[in-house]
Amino acid sequence: MSIRATGGVGYLPLNEWTDFARAGADNYRKERFGAYWDIGIFCSFARRHAVGLTVGGIGITAYDSGSVAPYYSYRTQWDFKTAPVTLVYEFYFSRSNCRFTPFIGAGVSYLITDLEVTHKSIGEPYGLETSVVTGDGEGYGFQGYLGLRSQITPSFFLVSRMRGQYADGWGFTRKKGDVKIEFTGADIALGLECRF
Q: What pTM does this model have?
């Protein structure tokens, strides 16, 4: 049995949301990369196989701004966050006592997703106004990845991973007409694993 914690960055294009936002935006832009972390517990069996349960977090932000000079200007910020709970399977290409162990993995996720929209405007006759709207939902995802586990001591390992995933943040709760909030993309991560 082992515990693993990793962190990294992911490329998240948010394709459908970006198309929707650009249609009514003056100066829409989105962060190219989002932060990612996870922590999980793994149980090995039959020497080269393991199953695990992980929890994590993914976040990314998009913006829009505009003005009607000289009377009015605004800025809107969308903060997308999701917490995936993932059941994974891993296959190791060498035995656990090797110094370097490449592996592949696949998983299925349950997502708890939040969206916070902050709108700030300034203009006559009201001055500065700020409004915040929040929404939440539940979704699902699938992932596959390649990794390398490098032994530091008999009980500690450095773990690197490259992963691709499809994730629909509001897939279970999205209503008809809602824009799809996808966390589909690719990420790279680095972390530590402790084996008991």
A: 0.84
Token pair in block for residue 152? 């530091």
Distance separating alpha carbons of residues 2 and 63, to the nearest angstrom: 40
β-strand pairing of 72-92 with 49-68: antiparallel
With CA atoms as reference, report the closest residue to 88 among 142, 13, 129, 46: 142
Per-residue pLDDT tens for 105-164?
A: 999 999 999 989 898 888 766 677 888 888 889 999 999 999 999 999 989 999 999 999
Q: How far apart are CA 127 and CA 122, in angstroms?
A: 5
Count other Cβ atoms within 10 Å, centred on residue 45: 8
Calpha distance 132→60 (Å, rounded): 17
Burial grade of 113 (CB within 10 A; 0-12, 13-18, 19 or more) = buried
Residue from 98, 108, 82, 95 nearest 181 by CA:
82
The helix (H) or strand (E) run that includes residue 23 is helix 15-23
